[in-house]
Amino acid sequence: MRTEPDPDPAVVAKLQGLFAWFSGDALRDDPLYQALAGAAARNADWAALLAHAPENQRWPMLWLAALQDRVMALAEAGERPALADYYASVGPARAPDAALEGHLGEFIERHRDALVLAMATRSTQTNEVGRCVVLWPLLQRLAEATGRRRMALLDVGCSAGLLLGVDRWRYRYVDDASGATVATSPLDRDPHAPEIACRLLAGTCTSLVTSAAAPEIVVRAGVDLSPIAVDDPAAVRWLRACLWPHDGERRARFDAAVAVARTQHWPLRATSDVAAAVEAWLDELPDDVMPVVANVWVLSYFDAPLLRRYSDALLTHVAGRGAAWICGDDPALSRTWWPGKPERAADARPNATAWTVARPDGRGGVAWEQPATSHAHGRWMLCEG
Predict the structure, then answer these.
(1) Of the residues 68, 102, 121, which one is the last residue of a structural domain?
(2) Which among 69, 71, 150, 254 is placed 20 to 30 Å from 119, CA to CA?
(3) Nearest-CA neighbor of 349 among 364, 325, 363, 332?
């Protein structure tokens, strides 16, 4: 039975358009998600569920995560609805077919209230450790450029804080043309830690990933609107639901990273004011470390005033307090905080992430660079210029 009020038809129409766009290039790596997003684009009633989310969270990935989380919760309880047969995350999966939309409609009608509640109260918190395959060499590059090896790392939008293990995960960089391994992480890393493989496109990025610099992260912390406790099974299931269901490799490395994180107890703090949280963290640091603030696919969820306040604060800290800021986000959005960002051919690739780095220029200002562009999950990386 429906209990929620009907949303504004104009809002629903806008959401249908967003689902239609997502069902193209944005989701082409996952046939099930393409099919589900396409179905929501055609059915106003299904797309309308997302209208109950906060405005800055009205993205198809939240709708898809809520759907998958509900499927997973039912599977854990021993119930297997027909829709679950399409999810590789809960067992052997069938390919999307003509029966999918019917099963989707039945599922939504039966679980509408639970889905609405999830979308109204949850947020997209992928916490994709694959992004560390780019973050690690950027930290090495910072150590080389500044001569400061001892670092303090703050992950803004940390979710469960898995990116804080960037110096613990194992990496393998492969030349896309030849298939040859170009570089791997140090051999002394935990063999139980996830290994993340990345294809280097067009023979680029070799110098970036073969650096001998060895950053030492002596302080690490995360801040988030709603941090995820890795010892909370339901919260961890939500993060797993934010992963795409077809990708067993992502789930395996996520589970491995969570297992490591449960032994580390990295400090995560809840905050509703990220700019103030960054400043408070900086005030706590010893003088002999280089502060590095990192955020990856977080700023896309900020409204314009918050984005401006946050980016202005970060650049002030870079220029005045010797901090560095590493940001991986939408290439177009990155011009908001770096108006002079050069055009990169790789920025136009599907699911591209522009990695921008701001560090002190030695003259009281900010030195900008974009060392790499990557897939949003770290599957490939390309360096230009």
Answers:
(1) 121
(2) 254
(3) 332
Regarding whether 149 and 50 lie in a shared domain, the answer is no
User: 291 lies in which domain range?
Assistant: 129-382
Residue linked to tokens 């590789």: 88
Does the residue 1 lie in any domain? no
Same structural domain, 102 and 138: no
Does residue 3 surpass a pLDDT of 70?
no
**SS3 of residue 58 by DSSP:** coil
User: CA 323 → CA 66, 143, 172, 287, distances in Å?
Assistant: 37, 12, 29, 11
72 and 218 in one domain?
no
User: What number of residues does the chain have?
Assistant: 385
The pLDDT tens digits of the residues spanning 290-348 come to: 999 999 999 988 989 999 999 999 999 999 999 999 999 999 999 999 999 998 989 99
Place of tokens 């047969």: 85
Q: Is residue 3 part of a domain?
A: no
Quick check: 209 and 199 in contact, CB under 8 A? no
- Alpha carbons within 13 angstroms on the beta-carbon side of residue 173 total 26
Query: Count of domains in the chain?
Result: 2
CA 272 vs. chain centroid, Å, equals 19
**Which pairing describes strands 352-360 and 324-329: parallel, antiparallel, or unpaired?**
antiparallel
Query: Do 125 and 68 touch, CB atoms closer than 8 A?
Result: no
Token pair recorded at residue 33: 């998600």
109 shares a domain with 141: no
Q: Is the dihedral of CA 44, 46, 48, 54 positive or negative?
A: negative
Q: Note the pLDDT of residue 279.
A: 96
For residue 1, pLDDT over 60 is answered with no
- In the sheet with 170-175, reading across from the earlier edge strand, the strands are 181-184, 170-175, 195-200, 380-382, 366-375, 352-360, 324-329, 290-296, 150-156, 216-224, 268-270
Q: Give the model confidence (pLDDT) of 175-187 as tens digits.
A: 999 999 999 987 6
Cα-based distances in Å from 278 to 211, 275, 293: 29, 5, 8
pLDDT, one tens digit per residue, over 119-175 is 999 988 777 899 999 999 999 999 999 999 999 999 999 999 999 999 999 999 999
The H helix count followed by the E strand count for the chain is 11, 11
292, 143 contact by CB (below 8 A): no
pTM: 0.88
